Amino acid sequence: MRPLATRHLANDPAGWARSLGISREAVEVYLASESIDLHVDSFIWNRILRYDLRARHGDGITGARFLSMVDLPRVREARMTGAIWVITTNPLRGPEGRAYACIENIRRLQGIFESVPDEFQVVRNVREYRAAVAAGRHAAFLGIQGGNALDCELGALDRIPDDLIVRITIVHLSSSRIGVTSSPAAGARRGEGLSTFGKDFVRRLDEKRILVDLAHINREGFFDAIAVHDRSLPLIVTHTGVTGVTPHWRNLDDEQLRAIADSGGTIGVMYQSSFLGDAWLGGRSESVVRHLEHIVNTVGEDFASLGSDWDGAICPPRDLKSPLDLPRLVEHMLRRRWTPERIQKILATNYLRVVEAVRG
């Protein structure tokens, strides 16, 4: 496989800053930090549209709305040291069909990264992450969006090859055998949270040392999961907004933020403009930092992260359309007089602490 066609933006921080209309300091703080995204959904378009992750794309015909936000060259250009690359579950398949497709997609996504071995490496824990970054590679964690991918039986989690999955979002946009989604489009099921099977599923994730991701689940299920979860392990919400800034069915309230923080976990702020409180098709990157700021002010700087949901059929802020725009977030943080140490926690180290507590 030929090397990825990338530009070396890091060699010209002043030029990168000028292109973004931000300070050189913001780019330099960004480059001095690790950068990890807790939720990148680009693989779904590789499956549906044969979107070539190894090719460098522009904004595409959609203007970087819904898709065409991330590819491997732009990840490298932006010096993203890691990300959780997600396999999203098709709820229309039968239980065994979902499990079969999930395992096949794990192998397929793994194969994409293995086709560029000098630049990307699939990792399962912080030790492997550190080794990959030290070798100059992007560390690709793998995750599953929708626990119903493996809900045919509890033993289905044992089918995951080489323990490659670091996290599972137990409920997505549809309710399942596990529990109830927060999405109103799936129909209201008041008073219902995790099923008995769902509670056992959470316990099994703990045993397997797979991070329990509580993005997308309804409030009852959220607290049901906390009640049965191994209290010695942190919980995670990889991509969400917060109701303290923008009330929305997709966002977490302060009680939920405190529950994640009390577990030692972290909360990733996503980039869907409407969840952030902006117009559906518009929005600005500063809105992401407003949500991060609320998390910091409510539970502290050790529990906030970034979980973009890029390419997850979202409409991101118009100045945050790809990884190349990430230094803009640092600019907003610096304007709030946040220290480089706080910024580095949010960009990567809060997540790494959580992974290390669960997987080493």
The unreliable regions are none
Q: What fraction of the residues are assigned to beta strands by DSSP? A: 5-15%
Q: Helical region count?
A: 13
The CATH class label is Alpha Beta
Measured as a percent range, the helix fraction is 25-40%
CATH fold node name: TIM Barrel
- How far apart are the first and last residues' alpha carbons, in Å? 32 Å
Instruction: Please compute the radius of gyration using only Cα atoms.
Output: 19 Å
Mean pLDDT over the full residue set: 96
Task: Give me the count of strands.
Answer: 9
Largest sheet: 6 strands, parallel
The rough form would be described as globular
**At the fourth CATH level, what is the homologous superfamily?**
Metal-dependent hydrolases
Question: How many independent structural domains?
Answer: 1
**Structural class, from helix and strand content?**
alpha/beta
- Taken in chain order, the helices and strands follow as HHEHHEHEHEEHEHEHEHHEHH
The second-level CATH architecture is Alpha-Beta Barrel
